């Protein structure tokens, strides 16, 4: 009995933005970007929302054909057959994103509604670029619990959709050459089914490390007070303030209304940066070590040798990180899926999109063993080892 991967899909906006296009925006060039990252182009949303991308990827995983502005492709395991799967048969939707269309309702709720997944329980999960492995791990745990003994004490979860969807172009500072070259928009989805087959997810590994120096942030407070706009008070002062509460609230509202954005600092009126900010070198060092550890841990937990892994599907942040990991693990680079050249870093979506690419390219086949790896903001890292 286990949690098997029975479908996956990816979706991307139609607009292709090349490195040369970005060189018109900031002081950079194609050669630098290709050499330092492996990225040649990325897809950028014009009208497409995160929901559009997420729904298209989910439909591809379910085998649902629809016409729309978002290009999509998918793979389904042989026993699913050609017929599209009814979204109302899905019990759980987890959506991983750092660029949702709204904070409330959740991105997953928007997807559920559009898909017509009328019986699904759904929620968002934010583990930044590690989203795919955290989402898969949580879904697998919920399925295992729901299908264990005393399962009547839990929501039934026989079929789950795990979706990573990002419209990062909305949260990228297009004047910052150290970050804007790295990111793209897109979505990936995996359809999981609880089955009798001894295949599927065989181990998971999740790890967090404090990002004490704020090496990788989005929407973080910089300088200004991130707490509600009241003065910091002693308990006595707080009591006396209770009497004039109405005035304080009115003052706070006025000061918010009167505050103006400071575009030169990139901060909104309350001091939060709306953009991804990154210390590239520090994150690079963290990521390179994290990939190696995540692959080794997933293998150790499943009792599988690293040499027996057919394909490693890592988060696509930088080709150099993947090449470093291959060298450290003593594996040929052909054993890693590289999709970054055409998609760039799509955060929570990237490894799911790369998995769909690997299946389309025949690099992964039924019966193969693979490890998905995530790393990113938090700092988060992790891996999921599965047999297809
Ligand atoms: N074009 C041209 N030159 C540039 C650019 C650019 N786009 N960006 C930086 N440079 C310059 C720098 O100013 C610097 O110049 P200097 O030597 O005169 O000071 C020089 O290039 C080297 O800069 P580095 O920062 O040392 O370049 P590095 O080789 O480290 O590459 C990069 C930068 C690509 C960002 C790399 O550090 C990286 O990939 N880091 C990890 C990113 C990552 O893994 N993110 C994952 C998580 S993302 C998420 O979770 C949302």
Structure description:
With 388 residues, the chain is of the alpha+beta class. The chain has 12 helices and 14 strands. The strands form 4 sheets. It has a 6-stranded mixed sheet, with helices on both faces. A 4-stranded mixed sheet has the order 9-14-13-12, sandwiched between helices. A hairpin with a 3-residue loop joins strand 13 and strand 14 (380-387). The longest helix has 23 residues, at 280-302. The protein starts with a strand and ends with a strand. The relative contact order is 0.18. The model is unreliable at 223-231, 245-253 and 259-264 (pLDDT under 50). Acetyl coenzyme *A is lined by residues 28, 32, 36-37, 128-129, 177-178, 181, 216, 276, 280-281, 283-284, 287, 317-318, 321, 345, 347, 376-377.
Question: Summary?
Answer:
It is built from twelve helices and 14 strands.
SSE topology sketch:
Elements: E1 2-12, E2 16-18, H1 19-23, H2 30-37, E3 41-43, H3 50-62, E4 71-76, E5 92-96, H4 107-115, E6 121-125, H5 131-146, E7 159-167, H6 177-180, E8 185-195, E9 200-208, E10 216-218, H7 235-243, H8 245-258, E11 276-278, H9 280-302, E12 311-314, H10 319-329, H11 340-343, H12 350-360, E13 369-376, E14 380-387
Parallel strand pairs: 5-6, 5-7, 12-13
Antiparallel strand pairs: 1-4, 1-8, 2-3, 7-8, 9-14, 10-11, 13-14
Helix pairs in contact: 3-4, 9-10
The structure holds acetyl coenzyme *A (ACO).
Residues 28, 32, 36-37, 128-129, 177-178, 181, 216, 276, 280-281, 283-284, 287, 317-318, 321, 345, 347, 376-377 line the site of acetyl coenzyme *A (ACO).
